Amino acid sequence: MAEPQNDPLLPGYSFNAHLVAGLTPIEADGPLDFFIDRPLGMKGFILNLTIRGEGLVYNQENQYCCKPGDILLFPPGEIHHYGRHPQSSCWYHQWVYFRPRAYWMEWLNWPLLFAQTGIYRPDDEHLSRFSTLFSQVIDAAQSGGRYAELLAINLLEQLLLRRMAVISESLNPPLDNRVRDACQYISDHLADSQFDIASVAQHVCLSPSRLSHLFRQQLGVSVLNWREDQRISQAKLLLSTTRMPIASVGRNVGFEDQLYFSRVFKKCTGASPSEFRAGCELMDR
């Protein structure tokens, strides 16, 4: 009877654990310079981070060249067919084999490279943090202590959560300080009937065209549309919480002409200022 393989870098290892992690340092013509070929994949997930050189991943008719910074995710049952790129002198890649906790599944829905193989490439700003977490997972998994596996799983959870946080941040990036200052300036001057973008741009040390571009890029609307939204929001607040005359409400948000204020307000809300106030009073009864 053959002895079980205890080295996860060599064929025949069982991966009979919740988490196994390591670094595979492949050098051309070295002892690890062979292609992994698992046509039926594995029971768990594998994360693979290239840190040096290049690897080549095949999946039926598809292939992909892994470069430093590429993180690939192979789900259960996905084809594993990869090795050093023939034109690269080496391929060093860190990897984590794991069986996820049930609530991780949302975090494992990655953009697909091909078939079911996921891919994520952190930008330069975040790559070092992911590399550090990857190394910490490996160190914990190989430490051999009583809580080694639990600690490694905890660190892997941090890595997956970090990716989710970075994606969320990229979808909702923080406002440029100049845009934030412009918004504050506009809010402080809603009562000004004479408004021009140039004065706002001057306040935040930008050209009007640059300010307009940043506004559309970060808020999705023009400066004028954003200001109008704020004026109507402030008018709704005054109408619903004070007994201020409608003309005074209009002037408070920059409309000198009450009729024009009523027309704009109705266009934006579907009700005239008096109708809106009456509706608020009914709700308070």
TrEMBL record:
One of its GO terms (biological process) is arabinose catabolic process. One of its GO terms (molecular function) is DNA-binding transcription factor activity. It comes from the Bacteria. InterPro entries: AraC-bd, Homeodomain-like_sf, HTH-like, HTH_AraC, HTH_AraC-typ_CS, Tscrpt_reg_AraC-type_HTH. Keywords: Activator, Arabinose catabolism, Carbohydrate metabolism, Cytoplasm, DNA-binding, Repressor, Transcription, Transcription regulation. One of its GO terms (cellular component) is cytoplasm. It is found in: Cytoplasm. Residues 180-279 form the HTH araC/xylS-type domain. Homodimer. This is Arabinose operon regulatory protein. It comes from Shimwellia blattae (strain ATCC 29907 / DSM 4481 / JCM 1650 / NBRC 105725 / CDC 9005-74) (Escherichia blattae). The gene is araC.
